[in-house]
Amino acid sequence: MWEQIKSNQIRSAALVAAIAVLLLLLGYFLGLYFIGNGIGGLLIAFIVWAIMSLIAYYQGDSILLSLSRAKKIGPDDYPRLYNVVEEMKIASGLEKVPDVYIIDDPALNAFATGRDPSRASVAITSGLLQKLNRDELQGVIGHEISHVKNRDVLLMAICSVMLGTIVILAWYASRFLLFGGMAGSRRSSSSSGNSAGMVQIVILAVGLILMILAPILAQLIYYAISRKREYLADASSALYTRYPEGLASALEKLGASTQQLKSANQATAPMYIINPLHKEGIKASDLTSTHPPISERVRILRAMAGGASFSEYEKAYRQVHSSGKGILSTAAIAGAGAVSVRSASLAEPGGVELTSEKVARTREVSDVMLRLNKYRTVDCTCGAKWKIPPGFPDDSILCTRCGRRLKI
Amino acid sequence: MQFWVWIIIAIVVIFLAILAGNYNGLVGLRNQLKNAWAQIDVQLKRRHDLIPNLVETVKGYAKHERETFEMVTNARNLAQKASSAGAAERGKVEGELSMALGRLLAVAEAYPELKANQNFLALQEELTSTENKISFSRQFYNDSALKYNNKTQMFPSNIIAGMFSFKAGEFFEVTVPEQREAPKVSFT
After folding, report:
1. pTM to 2 decimal places
2. How many domains does chain A have?
């Protein structure tokens, strides 16, 4: 596990450095163009970045939580949620229980924040909390806790701040160019000689290209980091819970929902378990930017036959992608032994049954067949459906799932 | 002459560095193991504390299940007595307690009024969570024990482990005589 974090850190550091280089390059050329001094521009870019980073480091989590209008809860408010968070804290070996927050929103999503494992928070929307059974909730919280454990939160904060700086710089530069174009042309006309003009044009061209490309490139790198982290968090969640099916079916529910989270925006999107910015009415699984496609994540988790270890996840990933390239580092896979999957926990009253499409269709068909044979059906409030054969003597039936007595 | 002195010094320094690194690694893993064991201990105690409450609540609705109550109470007392024993011994008694608890909850299934009781529902959630916490802390403990044991047995750290008498950790397995299974709802 630790090896995984280490090797990921190296790889991520390279990608972070790439964004940093982009940022500095942009600053340099913009400086060269607007104030005639590359180092000055570089400094400005650096200062903007430093200020934003400091804010993000010290205030990032509280800003994010208040932006998403999350309410902090205690162990007595939502015992099940709080217990599951504690369980996952123990499974991951985190030293402190993260703060638990609820976002009062029917949309389905969750995120983790906090700059280090001892100061972390986990937030979940009330809609998601309602929809998930215990195993699924465990999978989701396991995913979030592993973001904390793997220090993804800090990494993504650094990246998103750099990305934000690049976007801001490029935006202001383009405004200046459009509306304050005079400044540039005045300087170029005042400069004497042909060669100086040529240099000016080259700088302008490079600056323009950077201005357009840097935000896009940075975004792409950002997405690459983010996606890798999502896979790792899925694998860790499976390892912690020893039950990949829980997260898989939770993801399925998340992917099927079409509601948009009101309080999410571009900057906070990668923090969530699924991309919160899918358009109203469009399935979340159709969008692939910061997150890998949900259907793929589900397929990988489901393909983990008889094991919950990293090596099993890696095997499943290769199987789904049918390519030789894996997603996790070899050091991590070599270090971990075989890990078996546990069985599903007790069905709870009020919990939602895991039904795939196929099962639902089979049930529909058998319902029709039974009705033709004069069976009557009774729906229980817990979700179970009882089929009563013709000639059943009693006028009520005990639902063995939730213990209620149902009238026929 | 000078050259050889430097070479020897370098070798000694490297040797000491490896020694220190391995020693610190072993101490770190041993502490992690101890900490993981303490976690299990906390959860097992929590379960022992929950049981009298649970038994009382169930008793209020299901008076005739005396045998089950006695079994649970006895298993709990035995488990509590063994709380200072080693991992293997504890695993056995806690396994028996798990089985007795499973039976108690199965009994509760037959009493709809009990299952609608708010107090019982809260206790059930607590118990489910405590069971999960026990198994997750066991999971973490065993992972830690495996890592620590590997370190004490593999070269070169095994030499240092032998020198400073780092003993291998015991695995904690709860041997449940009868695996608890999810109740099956028949839909057709």
Report:
1. 0.71
2. 1
How close does chain B come to A312, measured CA to CA in Å? 17
pLDDT digits (tens, 9 = 90+) for B90-134: 888 888 888 888 888 888 878 888 878 888 888 888 888 888 888
Query: Phi/psi of residue A330, each to 5°?
Result: -65, -30
Q: Give A338's pLDDT tier (boundaries 50, 70, 90).
A: low
What pLDDT, in 10s, does the model give residues A61-84?
788 788 778 889 888 888 889 999
CATH number assigned to the domain with residue range B2-163, chosen from the 4 options 3.30.413.10, 1.10.10.10, 1.20.1440.20, 3.40.190.10: 1.20.1440.20
Chain segment A244-283, per-residue pLDDT in tens: 888 999 988 888 776 666 666 555 666 676 766 654 444 4
* Complex ipTM: 0.74
At residue A100, what are phi and psi to the nearest 5 degrees? -110, 130
DSSP A386: E
The token pair at A64 is 């994010």
Q: Which of A3, A87, A136, A144 is catalytic?
A: A144
| Cβ proximity of B184 and A346 under 8 Å | no
- The answer to whether residue B135 neighbours chain A at the CB level (below 8 Å) is yes
Structural domain boundaries enclosing A375:
357-407
Which neighbouring-strand residues pair with A123? A101, A111
C-alpha pair distances (Å), B115 with each of A76, A350, B126: 20, 13, 14
**A136 belongs to the catalytic site:** no
Say yes or no for a CB contact (<8 Å) between A337 and B126: no
B36: chain A residues, CB-CB within 8 Å: 93
B116–A403: do the CB atoms touch at under 8 Å?
Answer: yes
With beta carbons under 8 A apart, name residues in chain A contacting B140. Answer: 90-93
Q: Determine the distance in angstroms separating the CA of A13 from the nearest CA of chain B, rounded to an integer.
A: 25
